[in-house]
Design goal:
The protein is of the alpha/beta class. Helices cover 41% and strands 15% of the residues. It folds into 2 domains: 141 residues, 2-Layer Sandwich (Nucleotidyltransferase, domain 5); 48 residues. β1 and β2 form a beta hairpin. α1 crosses α4 and α2 packs across α3.
C-alpha cells in the first residue's frame, strides 16, 4: 500500500473526496503528504473503518503528516458546477492549502481532474495508497463534523446520523419539512419532496 514510492522524486500527496453522493451538505476533499518513515498503522478506505478508528487515525495523520489540508465546495458551487466539478474544486483547494507544494498527486478514482500538479488516477486508491487512504479519512471526518453541526441548525432530518445520505428519517424529514437550505435541490429525492409539497399546496413552485 505504498504507490507513493513509485512516483519519483519530490513530495507526493494523496487526494480523495467525501460527499459526492449525499442529498445535502458540501463536498469535501483531503490532500495529504505522508512521511514515509511515519506511516500510521491501519490506514484504509475511510468507509471501511469504524467511527472510532477514523477519529483516532485523523488525529494521528494530522500529527505525523508532512502536510495536510481539507478543501470544501459549497451547496451553491455544487449547483453551479455539478457535483463532479465541485469535487474537483474541493480537491484544488485542498492541494493549494498544503504547506508543502507536492510534485505529484495520486487521486482516488478514474477521473482526471485538472489539479494544481501532475496527477495519476488510481481506481480503489483508498485501498492501495497510504496517502489516498489518509486523505479519505480527513475528508470524511471533516464533512461528518459539518453535518453534525447542520443537524443542530436544521433539526428534523437526522443529519447527525446519516450525514445527508439516504435514510428513512431523511426521507420523512423531507416530506414533512421540505428541503433545508443545505439540501441539493437538483437531486431527485429532493426534487420529489418539493413536488410533493407543491401538489399538497404547501409550496408555490
Amino acid at each position: 500500500m505504498m504507490l507513493e514510492l513509485a512516483c519519483g522524486p519530490g513530495p507526493v500527496c494523496g487526494v480523495d473526496e467525501a460527499g459526492r453522493g449525499p442529498w445535502a451538505g458540501p463536498v469535501s476533499a483531503g490532500a495529504v503528504i505522508l512521511d514515509p518513515d511515519r506511516i500510521p498503522k491501519g490506514l484504509n478506505d475511510s468507509k471501511k473503518l469504524s467511527a472510532k478508528a477514523r477519529a483516532a487515525l485523523e488525529e494521528e495523520i494530522k500529527d505525523v503528516a508532512i502536510a495536510w489540508c481539507v478543501g470544501l465546495a459549497s451547496i451553491e458551487e455544487i449547483a453551479k458546477l455539478n457535483i463532479l466539478h465541485a469535487a474537483g474544486l474541493a480537491m484544488c483547494r485542498a492541494i493549494e492549502g498544503l504547506s508543502v507544494t507536492p510534485a505529484f498527486a495520486l487521486v482516488d478514482g478514474n477521473y482526471a481532474f485538472k489539479l494544481p500538479c501532475p496527477i495519476k488516477t488510481v481506481v480503489k486508491g483508498d485501498s492501495l495508497s497510504c496517502s489516498i487512504a489518509a486523505a479519505s479519512i480527513l475528508a470524511k471526518e471533516a464533512r461528518d463534523r459539518i453535518m453534525i453541526e447542520m443537524d443542530a441548525l436544521y433539526p428534523g432530518y437526522g443529519f447527525a446520523g446519516h450525514k445527508g445520505y439516504h435514510a428513512p428519517i431523511h426521507v420523512e424529514g423531507l416530506r414533512r419539512l421540505g428541503p433545508s437550505p443545505i439540501h441539493r435541490l437538483g437531486w431527485a429525492p429532493v426534487k420529489a419532496a418539493l413536488a410533493e409539497l407543491a401538489v399538497n399546496g404547501e409550496l408555490d413552485l
